[in-house]
Structure formats: structure tokens, C-alpha cells
Amino acid sequence: MKKKPIIGITSSIMDIEIKGEINPAVHTNHQYVKSVTEIGGIPIVIPVSNEDMAKEYVNLCDGIIFTSGEDVDPSRYNQDPSDELQKINFARDETELPLVKYAVDKKIPIMGTCRGLAIINVALGGTMKQHLESEHHQEAYRKLPTHEINIEEDSQLFHLFGEKKAMVNSKHHQAVDQLADSLTVAATSEDNVIEAVEAKKKNQFILGLQFHPEELFAVDTKMLNLLMRFREACEKKG
């Protein structure tokens, strides 16, 4: 029997009230945990910590999912904050930026959704559009695909989906501006917003998505295939 891959899932910090007291809690969307379990992985939630611990997490995990959440601090890509910048989390950036770099150095498979795409791009030297001029984010229920993307035929995403178009469930107010040199565009929206990126090197699994396969895999075979391919990459690493 194959050893199940250990897949790290990044998290944030959320204040919760317990008996009248505010307590900081480790927080991640349970759907990430559920999706990893469903595809045969062992989910491990990675708490916000520091660079030294990031090295330990990479040594522990066979793959890492960078989850959605706060905006990446624009100072991380040498920009001043715009008026439209939303909540940032300095400590989370301090953990996840080196986590990306150490994972890439060790060729640990990584996948990012929404903020996860942003942190991957920024960690590898790219920049972000701090706010989209047009309303490119959906207000609908995230478990429903609401817009179409165009997939590059020479991309790994095309081989996974088997189609040049797909319906996805993006919900974001930022987007990739300058793409990191080690990444390539895998898919765009009808208004040319980058919806998916991947590693230029085909022997390394890096996938950044503006959409959320963890919310759709139960009803969309393409999203399930994507997550299963990620698990397979993690198995090889493990």
C-alpha cells in the first residue's frame, strides 16, 4: 500500500470570542482539509509562525496548499499601498513567503488558490495589481462556477482539463501584474485577467489558481482530476 502524502495547508489567525474573551485562533477553510482527505492525502494545517518554522514545515510535508485570505503586503513587491488595498497579515506573509521559496528549492509540489496564487507569484519575484479597475470578482456562492476561462493549450492545466475552456468560481479583487520569471500563464479570463499560472519547468509541480477547486471537486470532474494530479505529485515526492 502506498504511503499517503502529507499535505500542508496554510492558515491565518482569526479572533474568536469565548465566554466574553477574545482569543486568536488558527483558521483555514475546512473545505481544504476535506478535499485533501477525499483525494487520499493527510491534511496538516500549518499555523502562522516564522521563517525558521517554515523550513521545518517543508521538511515535514510532501506537498503544500497555499490558501485564500488577506492581501499580500505590497511592500513585499516594492509598492506603496493603494487606497483599495484590503486587510493584510504581516505575520502570515513572514511565514508563507519563505515557505514558497523553501518548497520550490526542495521541489515540493505546491498549489495556491486566490491569495495562494499571489503569495507564490510574489515569493518568486512577481508583483500584483492591488485592485482591479473592473469588477472582476463574483458575489455569488463560491460553490458555483460563474465565469469562463481560456486555457493555454501547451499548459499542464490543459492536459488535466482536456479542454481549452472551463467554468470556474473566482472571487478576488486583485490579480497578477508582473509574472515571476519562473512561472508561465496557464489560463486567462475573457477580460485577460490571469486565472492560472504554473512552473515553466515541467518537472516541477507549481500551480497557482484564482479559482477554488476545493469547493467544486465533488461536482466537477475536471477539478477532481486537478486535485488528484496534485496528490500524485506529492506521492512521488514522498
Tell me what the structure shows:
With 238 residues, the chain is α/β, with parallel strands linked by helices. The chain has helices spanning 30-38, 51-60, 90-105, 115-123, 156-161, 213-216, 221-237, and strands at residues 6-10, 12-18, 21-27, 42-46, 63-66, 110-113, 128-129, 147-151, 165-168, 175-176, 183-189, 194-199, 206-209. The chain has a nine-stranded mixed sheet, with helices on both faces. Strand 5, helix 3 and strand 6 form a beta-alpha-beta unit. Helix 3 packs across helix 4.
End-to-end separation? 13 Å
Helix content: 25-40%
Overall form = globular
What fraction strand? Answer: 25-35%
Just give the CATH class.
Answer: Alpha Beta
Whole-number count of domains: 1
Q: Which structural class fits the helix and strand makeup?
A: alpha/beta
The arrangement of helices and strands along the chain is EEEHEHEHEHEEHEEEEEHH
Q: Mind describing the biggest β-sheet?
A: 9 strands, mixed
Kindly report the average pLDDT value.
90
Classify the oligomer. Answer: single chain
Number of strands: 13
At the fourth CATH level, what is the homologous superfamily?
Class I glutamine amidotransferase (GATase) domain
- Give the CATH architecture: 3-Layer(aba) Sandwich
Write the CATH fold name.
Rossmann fold
Q: Helix count, per DSSP?
A: 7
Contiguous low-pLDDT stretches (5 residues minimum) are: none
Q: Strand order within the widest sheet? A: 4-1-5-6-13-12-11-8-9
Determine Rg (CA atoms, Å).
17 Å
